[in-house]
Amino acid sequence: MKTFKQFISEALPFGAIVSTSSYGPGLYGNPTASGVKLTPTTRGVAHKTLPLGSQVRITDPKTKKSITAPVVDRGPYHGNRQYDLTTQTTRDLGYKDYKQFGVRNLDVTPIKPKPKPKIPDLGIKVNMTIPKIIPTRKR
């Protein structure tokens, strides 16, 4: 089992300007790798190795617009692109549609998940046995 750090190092270093593209219209209605149905309003990205559900921060260096999106699918499988963005994600970055977006170099940074808080061991032992019920005698 790989750690998040290993996935990140394989994916790309933090703050890398990478080639991205958009996908969606021909695939609407199909399930993504995470099981979510792809629709025009599905926000997310496709990446080959990052864990599904992990978050990435996407920043357009030209417009300085930045959003956060989850990894919902696998890909891209065309060209030298590192990420595919859903149509909604490109709209959230300020583009009219996937055609206007085309192929762009964006700053994509995987976000390390916050650790889940651990329940402290207070050293208290609790007896969780169920008491035996003894029926009373009728007189």
Fold and architecture overview:
The protein has 139 residues and is α/β, with parallel strands linked by helices. The protein has a single domain (4-111), classed as RlpA-like domain (Barwin-like endoglucanases). It is 13% helix and 25% strand. It is built from three helices and six strands, in the order αβββββααβ. A six-stranded mixed barrel has the order 1-5-2-4-3-6. A hairpin with a 6-residue loop joins strand 3 and strand 4. The model has no long low-confidence stretch (mean pLDDT 84).
Secondary-structure topology with pairs:
Layout: H1 4-11, E1 16-23, E2 45-46, E3 55-59, E4 66-73, E5 83-86, H2 87-92, H3 98-101, E6 104-111
CATH fold name:
Barwin-like endoglucanases
Percent range of helical residues: 10-25%
Mean pLDDT: 84
Spatial strand arrangement across the major sheet: 1-5-2-4-3-6
CATH architecture descriptor text: Beta Barrel
- Gross morphology: elongated
Domains (count): 1
Radius of gyration: 23 Å
- Uncertain residue ranges: none
Count of DSSP helices? Answer: 3
Q: What is the terminal-to-terminal distance?
A: 67 Å
Decide which structural class fits the backbone.
alpha/beta
H/E series, N to C? HEEEEEHHE
CATH class: Mainly Beta
> DSSP strand (E) fraction?
25-35%
Q: Quick one: CATH superfamily?
A: RlpA-like domain
- Main sheet? 6 strands, mixed, barrel
